[in-house]
Amino acid sequence: MSSQTETPWWHPSRRPDRAPFLAVRGRITRAVRAWLEGEGLVEVETAGLQVSPGNEAHLHAFATQALSIDGQGRPMYLHTSPEFACKKLLASGEPEIFSLGKVWRNRERGALHHPEFTMLEWYRTGAPYETLMADCASLMRIAAEAAGAKALSWRGATADPFAEPERLTVAAAFERHAGVDLFGDLPAQARAAGIRLADDDTWADVFSRIIVEKVEPNLGHGRATILCEYPVSEAALARPKPSDPRVAERFELYACGVELANCFGELTDPAEQRRRFEIEMAEKQRLYGETYPIDEDFLAALALMPPASGGALGFDRLVMLATGASRIEQVLWAPVA
Questions:
Q1: From 48, 60, 83, 172, which residue has the greatest number of CB atoms within 10 Å?
Q2: pTM of the full structure
Q3: 3-state class of 245 per DSSP?
C-alpha cells in the first residue's frame, strides 16, 4: 500500500515508470480475449452486486445496501467472483462463456493482493477439468507472447511459459516438500515438520499452513505447476474425483511460487452444495463472527446446470509475471486509494 509520503500513482512523475506496464496489460487483454473468442467462448457481463458474495469461510466481502424508492434497505454485497452468476447462465443454456471483469475482496492488500482486481473466469460445458489445464498453459503462453517475454518472472523466480506445466497431486506435493502423508495424522506430522500450530487449529487450518509454508514456495519454478486433486473438504464447489472420492476435481496453477488460477470440475448437486456452504458458514461464524447468506437462486440453478468445468484466473497477477512487475499496483490503471 502507498504511504502518505509516497508520490501518488496519478502524479505525472510516476507515468514514465507505469506506462510500459500498462501498455503491455492492454496487449495481453486483447490477446486473451481474442484467444477465448477463437475457442468459441462468449464473453458475458455479470452484476457486481449480489445477494451473496460467496460462501467460503476465508473470503471477505464488501457489504452495502440497495435502497428501494421508499428508502427500505436490502443487504447486498460486491461479488468476490462472478461464479454464481456464470453458473446461472450455464443453467439457462449458455454452453461456453467467459467473464473478464472486476471483483472485490476485503482484508486483502499487498504485493500480490488488491481489494479490487480483475478476474478472468471461464466455463466449458461437457468438458473434463483436464481441458482447463490445457487452457491455463495456453493463457500463460499467450500472455508471454503479447508481452514479448521469454519467461514469467517474480522477485527473482522464473518459469518458462512455453513449457508443459508439471502436474503434481496435493498428496505428492505434501510428501515431496513437507515429508507429510496427506491422509495420515496431519497435525502430528505438521508439528514434526516444524510448523507451529495453535491448540484450536482445525484440520483445514493445518492443511492450509502446510500449503502456505512448505508447498507453495516450491511450486512453479522453471516451469508452471498444476497442483491437483485437493481433499474434498478443501474444494467446496468441486465434484469428487470418480476414481478416488477422497479428493476433488480441483487444481491450482502456480508460476514462480505465485498462485495464478483455481479450476474445478464443477459440482452440480444442489443438496451437497448446500451442505458444504453450511459447513463453510459455520466455520466463518466460528472464526470471524459473521456469515453470508446462501443464494437460493444459485442452488436452484445448479439443478439445471449441465456438467461443466470452470476456472478463475487472477488477470493482474498474470500481467505481473509477464511484465516482471514486483507489485500488483504497478499493473493497475487506477489503484484503490
A1: 83
A2: 0.95
A3: strand
The SS3 of residue 308 is strand
Q: Name residues whose C-beta falls within 8 Å of residue 239's C-beta, 6 or more positions apart in sequence.
A: 248, 249, 264, 265, 266, 267, 268, 269
Could you tell me the three cell numbers for 195? 510448523
- Going by the DSSP 8-state scheme, the letter that residue 201 receives in this structure is -
* Nearest CA among 332, 328, 333 for reference residue 154: 328
For the chain, the structural domain boundaries read: 12-165+224-331
247-298 residue pLDDT tens: 999 999 999 999 999 999 999 999 999 999 999 999 999 999 999 999 999 9
Helix (H, G, I), strand (E, B) or coil at 224: coil
CATH 3.30.70.100 for domain 12-165+224-331: no
**How many whole angstroms separate alpha carbon 16 and alpha carbon 35?**
30
| Alpha-helix runs per DSSP H in the chain | 15-38, 83-92, 129-147, 170-178, 186-192, 203-210, 270-288, 296-302, 315-323
